Amino acid sequence: MKTSPPAAGASRLDRPRNPLPPYEMRPLRTDAERAEAAALVQDNQRILAIPADMSASAFYQDPATPAVGLFENGLLLACMTARRVPDLGWGSGPCLFLDQVHMLPEQLDDTARLITLWASDAAAREDLPLVRTEMPARGALAAEPLASRLRRLIDLGWDLRGPSPGRDGHRVARLELVAEQRSGLGVLIDDDVRMTFASPPDRSDA
Between residues 167 and 104, which one has the greater pLDDT? Predict the structure, then answer.
């Protein structure tokens, strides 16, 4: 049986549109999002047995902080700052530095993978060779639950550069990731982050 052709313009309207990416990396925009990030900081401090540090929570509640978040359907999976740093004080050369990284404990593995994909691609697009970050490490690196987090990051391609004093004098684990352009990542993660430039953080070598 013959069927009538669609009316003019109907094929364009009926054509399936590309779905939006399931994840988005973007700045924290509202007081509610900043409060959610501050709560995420406190959750991570509790799980890692780090003494409560209200300055870390206040860092995210300050609207002047250039914080960004990884979201899934409005749910904050992780928060951090992402900046170009000419010389971090450890390692050599410029990098994309992820600071104050806190991830939703219930979705740690998937969130770590998404951040790794996004960060390596973002650094490559900025013509930076490396991504660097630091993780609070008050105890031994082999002690749980820190050890599990470090193993997951190493499995994802991060290089553990060892422990060292951080900016506040407390011990951190230094991590480094090679930049890698990942074509097609925009189908998975919508990226609305504009990189800022930062002076080298004040750090002491181990």
Answer: 104
